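pasting for ref
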Amino acid sequence: MAEIGYQVIARRWRPKQFSELVGQDHVVRTLGNAIEMGRIAHAYLFVGPRGTGKTTTARLFAKSLNWEDGPSLEVPEDSELGLAIMEGRCLDVIEIDGASNNSVDQVRDLRDECQYAPAQCRYKIYVIDEVHMLSQQAFNALLKTLEEPPPHVKFVFATTEAHKVLPTIVSRCQRFEFRSIPAELISGKLREICETEEIEVDDEALATIARMAMGGMRDAQSILDQMISFCGKKISQVDVLEVYGLASADSVKNLSLAIAKADYQSILEAADGFVSQGIDLYRCLLDLQEQIRAGLVRSIRGDADDLDFSSEQYARVLDSLRAGEDSVRSGLSDQVNFEVTLFRAVEASRSRAIDSVIRD
């Protein structure tokens, strides 16, 4: 029987201190300085891709401000109040999902509640996740409170789509940009998790998982969780490629060489092979773009490269591959669209800009 109390890795390994937050040092440093200097703003806006630590940082910040002997950045593990905040049990740290609590009436209720003093903490902190989902009327109802909140109230807004948040709201907040986490940092954290959980995993497998996560730690941890369910205590890169339908790095490299040589036959054979192996062609196209981009960087730096393209050729191939993304992702015949995109990339690599022809 499955263990009833099992928690997924992403929850079990959620940072409990600012020092455990990966890839957001600039945010930690700024919030730490604000706490030390007593310069706590009344509203914060956390912006960034999913799974980069926005909601976790909001909880950690609430814990730092509210624990018994605070405010301070580091909070002892045995703080009862700190534990309650991190587990979502604290009455004065209210987490609201903007997607499902987006009506003007709900925001008016929040505005009325603000006036009451906190029950057990120093500050009453409202964490509104996906704040861009609030309606126009709800935003307007929030404006006055946001401009002049009671001294015991702080707001933390989190969003993946900052451009949808009203400028009048943004201008009343301190804005923090959460960055996509570099793949090597994600791999390092996954390695730490695997060692603690006694999972044997090779570096190539971790690198592949980190690449798939595209900058999100939570996504990477969810993928690792699924791989443990599939493989048990030993994970290899072959397993990861098989479960997620990914092309190997060598296959992608061979495809880029075929484009460079205008070898249409090899491109067709590669596409057939990918389809027969159940490989995700859209993901393969993204990996190919990443490889071409790496070649462009090498070309700009003047390093040796297998494809022997000029910077201009690399840029045109990259443009051509990007132009084919939508048709491969959503087209009815993804194999045909994939092949056509690669053929266009070949043509793009062989064509020359008109100004360079004139110059010659």
